[in-house]
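Notebook p. 47: complex prediction with FE3-S4 cluster.
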Amino acid sequence: MAAVKARKKIHIETWGCQMNVADSERILQLMTDYTRAQSEHDAQLIVLNTCHIREKAKHKVISRLGRLRKLKRVRRDLKIAVVGCVAQAEGKRLQREVPDIDYVLGPAQIEQLPQLVKEQQQGTALGFATKKIATDTEAGPTLTGQFEISRFINIMQGCNNYCTFCVVPFTRGPERSQPRERILAQAQQLVHSGVREITLLGQNVNSYGQDLYPKGNPFVDLLRDVCAIDGLQRLRYTTSNPHDFTPALSALFAQQPKLGRYVHLPVQSGSDRVLQLMKRKVNVARILAIAAALRAHAADFAISTDVIVGFPGETDEDFEQTLALLAELRCSFVFSFKYSPRNNTPARRFRAQIPEAVKKQRLARLQQLQHNITTALNLAEIGQQRQVLVHYRSRKAGHIYYGRTVHFRPVRLVSEHDIVGQMHAVQITDANATALCGKLL
Ligand code: SAH
Ligand code: F3S
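Predicted complex, structure tokens below:
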């Protein structure tokens, strides 16, 4: 019998946004000589896919690298790659400070990883590829997803908005969209292979296509075309900046049931003064008008959001206005963060930086308010009938399944049969702060 050559193993750790999740899946697709390791201990290649959005995210990576260095001392064959936004922003410094790193690649260079690994094996290259932010779109959209039936398609990279707190335009570069035909072909192929839910990804997803198709509303056209794919049950997208949220985009929810009744719309603050300092290019009235338009179509339309507390210059009064906005919006979920100064960004140099203790206090107050809102909204679901798309089956208890309602609320279900990928009418029987329980009808 011919000996089967053992394949090398790769272990990937992913921090940060869904774009990074998408990039990690892409790396797995690219590294055809490797299979997935059980853990870092049986891997020959460890990839840290990093996030630079807040200081804390960066520190986590650095401390993780510290532990991996020790592993490398006893495992001579082990290679370490740092990819993603920390690599882009601090690649050179990192490689100087942690010489055990073998490869450093920014988000736009991940396509080069197989080549770098090959060249280093031949002893010709030091794996370093963060110098420029690539502007090509040759790689094609990335396909990924946590569950077989629900996948992400990365439809654009970068952002042109330069909000004063945000490092993304520096780490991910300017907006570059994938051509519409390529995205459609990928979406069709996914649905053909059994995928039922697609999420279109971009840092600023609703400005999709401004670079390629400056006339008309390319994002709306794309959504319409993807919705038309037979067999697709749900289409989502993230993250949508309110600035680029057009009336045509809100109107589309009424025309395309596959879009569901949910959107993620980061507001960041409820104070016009702070929004202006952040250069968000929208005011509270505009945010409320978008919410009103969505809820005119469906009164129960669910909105989730992101909020930053303790932006430089944020007064108690500004913060109260943020709480007031959240009380009015009644979001299904809020991702809330303490402001974290980032390199290159203007807000880092603003005077009136807010003391850490004040940020902490504000964050706790905001989270308490939001906890009460999320819980109340979940409890109000008890007794309702909802269409649930079933995403996966519990690994621990085989008869337990998890899905999402049309408002994107997580639901736990019990079934004797395999229901993954199916859309089911469900009676909501119970709820808590994080999820709903339901009974198949
Ligand atoms: N394009 C999106 C934001 C993507 S970044 C938008 O238009 O809002 C994801 C989230 O991280 C942001 O919404 C913001 O709430 C948070 N964030 C970004 N930079 C931050 C910083 N310097 N400090 C704290 N939170 C930050
Ligand atoms: Fe960042 Fe603002 Fe773009 S938050 S990703 S610069 S829209």
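Notes: DSSP finds twelve helices and 20 strands in the chain. Residues 8-125 form a domain with the Rossmann fold fold (CATH 3.40.50.12160).
Next step: compare against the earlier run before touching the bench.
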